[in-house]
Amino acid sequence: MAVVLVLRARGLGDLLTAVPALRALRRARPHDHIALAAPHRLKPIVDLIASVDEMVPTPDAESLRYDGEAPALAVNLHGAGAEGIVELVKTDPRRILTYRNPAFPDLDGPDWQQDMHDVDRWCHLLESDGIAADRRNLGLVPPVATTSHRDCVVVHIGAGSPARRWPPERFAAIVRHLLVQGREVVLTGDEFEREIALNIAARAGLPHRQVLAGQQNLIELSATVAEAGLVVCGDTGVAHLATAFGTRTVLLFGPTAPSHSGPPPHLLGRHVVLWAGRTGDHNADTPDPGLLEISVAEVVDALDKQLRKRPWPGTNIDRRPAAYRRVG
């Protein structure tokens, strides 16, 4: 049995944008053994994708330790840099499928295009090798919730970097608005964000028991997102989970453009994306100025409109057209 080794040693959102590509590989090579090099903490989501035979725990590209059979094909879904290719070369594959990099002139592949949605980027890479990929194949089967918060509003207060974190006092104002409307609200985030979430809850008058930040594993968080009536968050892995489960969202973008990592255009009927219309510094230690241009009033307006919506009869997908909404 031939081995296909795929490198995607990044976060939750990055994994979810690669789902159509992983499924395309599975369809194209149904009898091969597909091994995914990715962070071990993402295994519960990898299991939901149902296209991978083995996970190689890899927190980042430089930490790839693969000691199995030399791959017949190594697929670089990691990024534009040379580090992913360097590590894949060490596994002695017969062939590497990657975007072209000047550090490896002997490796053919398509040119990296900066202005491309992440879902499209990895599908395009496979298509350059003759593998058909369906960009719409993003959905996941929801896991079973141990504690139900069905139809609640999930307010996810965290993000992977300070530049993508909307201020806590603004989240508190959003929660207060939802509580006045009689909505059930839960606050989510990781263990490092629990104290922030508790402070937001105290400001907003939200009961302590509704603060789930730091109390859930990845499967429990996924189940909460899947059964929610609406998710409010920034440009995070939770936003991609909501997309995968078909949950409506209000998404706050900055410093990254939503055309790169937001919901794909064919799904915008279920999502409202707020963005100031300009990009910024991903590595900044403070919230992106464009993100700060998104006001509480604009988020409240988007929330109210989303909560008034209902799916069209006979389907759980709202097919009315929508677009990224520029704020300001």
Looking at this protein, list some descriptive labels.
328 residues; alpha/beta; six-stranded parallel β-sheet; five-stranded parallel β-sheet; 12 helices; 11 strands; elongated
Describe this structure in a few short sentences.
With 328 residues, this protein is α/β, with parallel strands linked by helices.
How do the strands and helices of this protein lay out in sequence?
Elements: E1 3-7, H1 12-17, H2 19-28, E2 33-38, H3 43-49, E3 54-57, E4 73-76, H4 83-89, E5 96-97, H5 118-127, E6 153-156, H6 168-180, E7 185-188, H7 194-204, H8 218-227, E8 230-234, H9 237-245, E9 249-253, H10 258-261, E10 271-275, H11 289-292, H12 296-308, E11 325-326
Parallel strand pairs: 1-2, 1-4, 2-3, 4-5, 6-7, 6-8, 8-9, 9-10, 10-11
Question: Could you characterize what this model shows?
Answer:
The chain has 328 residues and is α/β, with parallel strands linked by helices. The chain has 12 helices and 11 strands. The protein has helices at residues 12-17, 19-28, 43-49, 83-89, 118-127, 168-180, 194-204, 218-227, 237-245, 258-261, 289-292, 296-308; strands at 3-7, 33-38, 54-57, 73-76, 96-97, 153-156, 185-188, 230-234, 249-253, 271-275, 325-326. The protein has a 6-stranded parallel β-sheet, sandwiched between helices. Strands 3-2-1-4-5 form a 5-stranded parallel β-sheet, with helices on one face. Strand 9 (249-253), helix 10 (258-261) and strand 10 form a beta-alpha-beta unit. The protein is elongated, with a radius of gyration of 20 Å.
